[in-house]
Amino acid sequence: MVAHLFLNTRKLTAAVRILVSATLAVVLITSAMAKERKLYPVDEGKKDASFNAFRERLLKAARERDKKFLLSVIDPQIKWSFGDDHGIKGFRKHWKIDGGVSELWSELIEVLSLGGTFSTSEGRKGFWAPYTFSSFPDDLDAFEYAAITGKDVRVRARPNASAQIVATLSYDLVKADFSGKGGAIEWAKVTTPGGKGGYVLKKFVRSPVDYRAHFENIKGKWLMTVFIAGD
After folding, report:
1. Is there a smaller number of Cβ atoms within 10 Å at the N or the C end of the chain?
2. What pLDDT was estimated at residue 24?
3. pLDDT in tens, 73-98
């Protein structure tokens, strides 16, 4: 009788252990899945024929460094900083459009190439680009997290193209450090959803507070009303 009870107790204990282990495994898997968040590319611009044509023309102008066309589609009151220096005159000076080498062209090309979304404010329709700004989750710290903008992007153990690959990411939201410490200027230090640390080429990861643009149809003509970075 005692032996029988002892065997049943052992069986019950084993069953409890199995149940506990299974429950723990589910919790761990669920937790890992909860941490993994994606931000897939979005481009609503193609839905509006007039805006899509305008964007293609502006992209062409940016690639050809066509200053004349660019200035013709900038709102005279364009917002380009968080100070009081609004307007096209300050914009031209800040970006050195009238002389020297301007970084505006490459920034504009990248912004325009990463889609975006339409929005309506005070009854006026506008378009925000890129999607990494307009579609970024509100509950994540924009200064701490960034979006991986490609598929199967390699995360390396060190900021070196020949370093060991520790993970691959596809449109994940990750913690990112763009400071370029240790001379890693072309690399961003990231923490994957699984908790692994590594480095990704900056061209594949973008912060939501990086440069973004807003376009608005004013009196039948699309104009760039905002081109700004930060928060």
Report:
1. N
2. 47
3. 999 999 999 987 789 999 999 999 98
